[in-house]
Amino acid sequence: MTAVVLRRGRFSIRVERRTLVVSVVALVVIAGLALLGLCHGAVWASPAKVFAALTGAGGDSGVVIRQWRLPRVLAAVVFGAALGVAGAIFQGVTRNPLGSPEVIGLDAGAYTGALVVLTVLSGSSAQLITGSVLGGLVAATLVYLLSRSGGLSGLRLVVIGIAVNAMLTAVNSWIVLRAELEVAIAAVGWSAGSLNGLGWDDVGVPFVVLGVLLVFLAARSRDAQQAGLGREVAVATGVGLERLRLELVLIGVGCTATVTAVAGPIAFIALAAPQIGRRVAAAPGVPMLPAALTGAVLLLGTDLLAQVLLAPVPLPAGVVSTAVGGSYLIWLLARKVGRA
User: Fold this and answer.
1) At the topology level of CATH, where does 73-339 sit?
2) SS3 140
3) How far is CA 160 from CA 81, 100, 127, in A?
4) Could you read off the pLDDT of 215-270 as tens digits, one per residue?
5) How many of the other CB atoms lie within 10 Å of CB of 152?
6) Which residue has the higher pLDDT, 181 or 155?
């Protein structure tokens, strides 16, 4: 497969030609869905009004587009990309297509941390992000320690992760039942995973956190690509696997927990995006860029679908992603059983 080397100053990156083409097409799809998201609302805005609003004009409709619709659309793009990256990281580390954050308990752990913050502290944006990250790290550590006792393997890690996920889900239900009524109602609604009502105040800090994490990931992308080709290739090229895996897991937990803190646990984006991206790009391993772009497309699409299915009452995006992702999971399991 032919490759293209992109250079800028001292930095360069090698990208397979097909991956580059798929990425460009995905960016075009994202731009189209984003425009549709900015047009859609209680009152339809034409593309001309959207472009006028983005330049600072448009009157009252321009304020609605800039202050209400734009944060939501950008959140769908950024959060979808972050979930796609997190899924690619954990599927690469476990070498298993089921090794995504929602399956192995990281979503549930992040949700536990956020619930503790909501019920004990004031629940500010920074506190929610911190609590979610700590909860995700605790869940990841627990899964890792239980998995390595009998010899670390991808299948063992996934199975133990499913068990940890079930236990954390029970803990979360207990926390909600013991919480005050207002907090419980907010927590249950938030647990569905939704982008409804997000504004600039909600997404500012998460965007910065995710940006920093993705920059760190980009700096380690070459080593991650080598590791994805197998242990022998990674060792031969001088990649420190243990340190790399630790760094990747921390980035994956950070991405998952940050999204969960703001939008709640949006299921199955992290599961499906890496595999869809890998198949479309026909790339070895679990490539990060196609996974990120596919995640953005999936979350944008599911959020738009959630807005129109029962309009004018918007559904949480997590409800639609769960329905779509559940169908994908059934297909994936049936395919793996068929090969067995």
Assistant:
1) ABC transporter involved in vitamin B12 uptake, BtuC (1.10.3470)
2) helix
3) 26, 13, 29
4) 888 887 777 766 666 666 566 666 667 777 888 888 988 898 889 888 888 888 99
5) 11
6) 181
